[in-house]
Amino acid sequence: MSKSRFNLEEIIDLKKWEKLQDSLSLVTKMAILTVDYKGVPVTKHSFCQPFCQGVRQDSNLSPYCQKCDARAGIEAVRQNKPYIYLCHFNIIDIAIPIIIDDQYLGAIMAGQLKLREPDVSQLEQIVSRPPNVESNMKFQALKEDYEALPVLSYDEVTKCVDLLLQLSTYIVEEAIQKRTTVDLYKRVLTTDIDISTSAESFEETDLTYRKIQSLQQELSGALIETKLKNGAQKLVSSNAVLQPAFDYIYAHKNENFSLKEMAKLCHISPSYFSRIFTKETGENFSLFVARLKIEWAKQLLETTDAPINQVSDDLGFCDTGYFIKTFKRFENLTPAVYRNMYMS
């Protein structure tokens, strides 16, 4: 597993997160622990059940708990979704991966409960433990705590898991977005050009302006990128000549660009660019870009509460009215109606 370019401990305020984790534990009736991409805990264990505390303190049994945690985390990353399983005592546990932009940042380990339904055949016991006298004696000593474990239906478990997944992903994405904003503006503030004295030279002033404008465009694109999920991946062209255009389009979602500009970027004539672009995509340039921007708009409408005019601005439409008209052309309904249908 490759190291993440983000670090959970640097991204989120762990003290605030632990308070939220405690509250989520009370609401969901699950014990919760957050670990980094190495599986190392970055928070305390919120409301660890007495039964599990007793098992984890036992030198003979705790290695099985650790094996469960490690294997569940790997399985969750492999499946790229929450993994619900049975521990070596047939208790329900869950590994919920935190994955942003295909980067595995860590996981929320939750559970320590029993299912209301007697049939748990659909779940895998991730680690098996051979029975022995010492283990049986330990279980008997903790039997009262075992009986006191929270009981949920499988449907309740999946709803709690979805809540934890959505909330953790949102919080981490927002934290990354803020960090990106701060980092980019720090670059503006630390530019090697002294803006206070550059008025003496139009050339220097113009250079400063263009540097700041470039950083602002980079910032806007970065903020949009953090909000977009599936479907935002770059298109790899079968014709290498076109790849610079596709790279630019996907990296500058907040801009308007013309066929002539993209042809120049690819070092070919506009007519030749138009011909091979249509052959590659099955659509002419303007239709392809419009359809692509509407797909990005749908994702922003689904995953953020940004106003319609902000979505329009974020994707480089000249005005909100034109954005709504274009959206309706492809989807046969307005952005507002689309968002209401998606959220209902």
From TrEMBL:
Domain of life, source organism: Bacteria
InterPro entries assigned to the protein according to its UniProt record, in alphabetical order: Homeodomain-like_sf, HTH_AraC, HTH_AraC-typ_CS, PocR_dom
SMART domains: HTH_ARAC
Keywords of this entry: DNA-binding, Transcription, Transcription regulation
Signal peptide: none
Domain HTH araC/xylS-type: 243-341
One Pfam family recorded for the sequence: PocR
Protein's recorded name: Transcriptional regulator
